[in-house]
Amino acid sequence: MQNTAHFVFGIFGNISALFLFLAPMITFWRIIKSKSTEQFSGIPYAMTLLNCLLSAWYGLPFVSKNNLLVSTINGTGAGIEVIYVLIFIVYAPKKEKTKILGLFAFVLTFFAAVALISLLALHGNTRKLFCGFATAVFSIIMYGSPLSIMVNNGFGSFLGVLQLILYFIYRKNKGKDKDKNENKNKNTAIVSMELGLPDEPNKDKELSNTNGTQDGHV
Q: Domain limits of the chain?
């Protein structure tokens, strides 16, 4: 009875996981048609690939027993995610392409390191715990990876809000500074009139006329 329930729920879990892996097909069909990744991020797909590789490794009989269905669905998911990552690399802008290529290399390197360590240095239950822990950690990272596109936007939104706050605080100061300058000019003009001094523009004009007259006499 226990083995039957394990198998049945494993099948349902695999079907649900397959729909999860196939869900981004609409997005990638749009990328292929437009030949552009637009504003989409490739990070979630690379991290999902790593999670699938680790989960598939964890489900193998020499790592954990009676988890072959875990290996089959995650092996299938790894193949699907590889296709997604390669499509993203083909159509991504140069800067984004370099980032995803680097992340793709990290995924393959990290998985190879976990597989080799678990295979050569660990045995029995220790191997199972090591692979299970790595799988659990990167499962959490996989589900959190879509937040990567929100971080920069969130920071930008914070700066935008800060600018608006500063604008509302100091928006009236511009008018005050203008009034101060106008009052200063008016006071200067009044003092000049009281002292019998000509305005600066008139003074400059008089000097220009004087020089012109002198040049004419010469």
A: 2-154, 172-217
